[in-house]
Amino acid sequence: MNIAFIGMAAALGLSAAGSAFGAGFAGMASVGAWKKCYASGKAAPFIMIAFSGAPLTQTIYGFLLMNFIKSAVTGGADAGLALGVGLFGGLAIGLSGLFQGKCAAAAADALGATGKGTANYFIVIGIVETVALFTLVFSLLLLG
């Protein structure tokens, strides 16, 4: 067995795990915020769906990283490097998804309570997203 396969699996698996946790946290907070809105007779902002789904993009980045690792190894890249990039890149992307979900959860709570600040919340969520994008790009540079 080639250890590069472990790196490929880690890139996707860790990224997807972070997405799952992040989307779970954000989704639970959105449901709770909607409940508070309904209980107080306020309109429930539909935009919280976007908060709940924001961490899902990290799974896509993990899939891309997995495929880039496969291409790099096929092209002669070191299997140990592929393992390291998959493990640490996947972990960083997954943690981005996890914390993006936590930011989105806080955003849902705040938006549900005040009805204000949507653009600001998306900016913060986007900043956390950038960590995953940087990790993906820098990992590609390591493999190249």
Automatic annotation (TrEMBL):
The keyword RNA-binding does not apply. InterPro entries: ATPase_proteolipid_c-like_dom, F/V-ATP_Csub_sf. It is found in: Membrane. One of its GO terms (cellular component) is proton-transporting two-sector ATPase complex, proton-transporting domain. Keywords: Membrane, Signal, Transmembrane, Transmembrane helix. Residues 1-22 form the signal peptide. GO terms for molecular function: proton transmembrane transporter activity. It is a multi-pass membrane protein. This is V-type sodium ATPase, K subunit. Residues 83-142 form the V-ATPase proteolipid subunit C-like domain. The chain crosses the membrane at residues 46-69, 81-99, 119-143. It holds the Pfam family ATP-synt_C.
